[in-house]
Design a protein that fits this description.
By secondary structure, the protein is of the alpha/beta class. About 25% of the residues lie in helices and about 15% in strands. The protein has a five-stranded antiparallel sheet with strand order 3-7-4-5-6. The protein has a two-stranded parallel sheet with strand order 1-2. The radius of gyration is 19 Å and the shape is elongated. Bound molecules: zinc ion.
């Protein structure tokens, strides 16, 4: 079957390619294939038109999907149907908390790319430029996200856990020792939220940004209270724990 990609999405991809010529495209996609669910908007079900695109998270090149998807939210562009990134979905349709980020329950949390679906209407072929600050657009930047609610900052397969754990376990190590930027800040944030919720010791200085046994125990206590049916990952903060704990 002949198919093509909605023009609005080709415009967006061209804008990203022009602004970030060296960007990583490893997780890019349009038409469904083994990497992109063929039952979704990645299939040309709307009159032969593919109405979804994935763009790779490549913060080193400036393509930061947290920032981009917040800007898409702020743009209120009428072409948007929904956006998925980092375990959260923002659907614009009236039956789905329109324009609000809520937890995404699909199997792929979308940490290596963001997904944009455009509406199944002639509007999807509206070729106008997307007015996003990151692309040099004129619209005012979105109010910066409250610093206490960043999205899950780790790559797929990684989690916050003991600093003495394997490489995938992020426990506050500095960048020079394999940590991500601001890793200690993120661990402290987890600790502070646990304190606020009453699952962690509350003495001054406890939230030190280093994930040790006491932090692990506190996370496990929170998990027991919130997801008693959980069977694995006790005491570890994965993207779905993060979505519930940090961005509920
Ligand atoms: Zn997708």
């Amino acid at each position: 079957m002949a198919w093509r990609v909605a023009r609005s999405l080709l415009t967006l991809r061209d804008q990203f390619n022009a602004k970030f010529p060296g960007r990583n495209k490893a997780s890019d996609g349009t038409i469904g294939d083994e990497n992109h669910d063929a039952t979704s908007d990645h299939s040309p079900w709307y009159g032969g038109i593919v109405t979804a695109i994935d763009i790779t998270h490549d913060p080193a090149s400036g393509v930061d999907i947290d920032r981009i998807t917040d800007e898409l939210q702020a743009s209120k562009d009428a072409r948007i149907k929904y956006v998925i990134a980092n375990g959260l979905i923002m659907d614009t349709r009236p039956q789905f908390n329109p324009w609000q980020w809520v937890r995404y329950s699909g199997s792929n949390p979308h940490t290596s790319h963001f997904h944009l679906s455009v509406v199944a209407s002639p509007l999807c072929d509206d070729p106008r430029q997307w007015d996003l600050p990151i692309l040099g657009g004129a619209s005012t930047p979105p109010p910066s996200r409250p610093p206490t609610k960043p999205r899950f900052p780790l790559p797929e397969g990684h989690y916050f856990g003991l600093i003495t754990g394997p490489n995938e376990s992020h426990g506050g190590a500095p960048e020079s020792m394999g940590g991500i930027p601001n890793e200690q800040y993120y661990v402290r944030l987890i600790q502070q939220v646990l304190q606020r919720l009453g699952f962690a010791p509350n003495y001054p200085g406890w939230a030190d940004g280093i994930y040790e046994q006491e932090t692990k125990d506190s996370v496990a206590a929170w998990q027991r209270a919130h997801r008693p049916n959980q069977t694995t990952r006790w005491g570890e903060v994965w993207w779905d724990d993060w979505a519930d704990l940090i961005r509920p």
